[in-house]
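Team,

Forwarding the record for the chain on the shared tracking sheet. I've put the sequence and predicted structure together so nobody has to dig through attachments.
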Amino acid sequence: MLSVYNLSVQFGKRVLFDDVNITFSGTNCYGIIGANGAGKSTFLKILSGKQESNSGSVFLEPGKRLSVLEQNHNAFDEYTVLDTILRGNQELYKVKAEMDSIYAKKDFSDADGERVGELQVIFEEMDGWNAESEAATLLSHLEIEPSLHYNKMVDLDGTQKVRVLLAQALFGNPDVLIMDEPTNDLDYETIAWLEQFLANYEHTVIVVSHDRHFLDAVCTHISDIDFGKIQHFSGNYTFWYESSQLAARQRAQQNKKGEEKKKELQEFIARFSANVAKSKQATSRKKMIEKLNIEEIKPSSRRYPAIIFEQDREAGDQILNIENLSYSLEGETLFSNININLGRGDKVVVYSKDSRAVTAFYEILNNSKKANTGSFQWGVTTGQAYLPLDHDSYFENGDLNLVDWLRQFALTEEEREEVYIRGFLGKMIFSGEEALKKSNVLSGGEKVRCMLSKMMMSRSNVIMMDEPTNHLDLESITALNNALTNFKGTLLLTTHDHAFAQTVGNRIIELTPKGVIDRFLTFDEYMTDTKLKEQRLSMYNI
């Protein structure tokens, strides 16, 4: 349906793609993955015609329609919400616009009548008479109220714009749907709806996402960008990751016989297929499991940072006690009447419908903000490490290279030695000359890896993290997820990464303007509990 022939892309001396030939077809959903800088977004721009390649071509089957999730959130500010949705199908919109312009004429001629008749036939064939109703339904699923449908896009806030542009991309069931990070700025409920929609979508989907739960829920194939090539693998992200890790281990096992390796791979596929078949995410798309093939399992060239959080000492039973904590911003209550007692080993997902509330909560616990009321007390045996949402202040001294930057946080003389620090940075994929980079030229993901290095060096028994996956690539996200799962201390975590919340958390604390909801549940249990859902909604000023 959509094919790429002999594609090559080069920026200066750097080759991004070299003679790529690949096809996207059928009712499959392809998750494009690759290390940061591998060219995922560039590839999507080339597929959608927004960027030229150095050589090669992209071919869309005649008569098929391609739709792209718009990344420029202000691109349609001058149009109404409904108009923006309808523009997702340009051919339909052109027909409608021409009909409207003819109807608006004061001197309507016989020729105009004939032309309108022709357009009406075309419009009906496109199911145009139901277009506004379909658009309104999409907007309803994405929680855009009917009262906003005729507002101009410029009047919407950022989150609302994202949802409208998502509806625009989905409108009219395009034959090929291209989406770059579609879950950004969406809440859990909207992402869940989108997962279900795409899992049952009967056309081709091509998506780039750092959300592993999303990739697992919707993908039938993983398209891996590596060494300037792109290769399809049957299965979702978890299957690709676990199978590539297994293949890497097998490659290292020189003494193992070929038949033993083949049997191990077959058992892995059987085990994975059984788990998927009984999972809550099982949908019609999961029929791809039947096509899994051991010949497709290959080791990846990916480098995963070595993230390990160790405790200098184990904390006592009393970790944190919070009494009657509240905080308001410009007269608006973000949270109030927060009473919490944390115990050793609690791994808490801190959640709120208002992200400002959780960030203020962490800042209060780290003494960079003052609460309006209430108090908190850390246990005497605790030591805290904190990853704030905004950590740019840690990199204000741009003259420091990474060795000297990390040396600031060393606790012992041994840790201040360059050999020790370079070894530490090497584990976080800052090896060789990378360790001498100035801290003011770091990317967002590199800064987070530096902050994680700082936290590991502290060997704290309490970790607090406000959106730690922001800016990280899939490899770092996976490594961090594994590290927090294995961490023996206490954790306070806020994340939009569903897989993180589900696999790490054993307790959910929701901060609301009318108090706190505190449950020892997994994240999925908490979010799908019907009675809790009613209680949660009543706790907000909505």
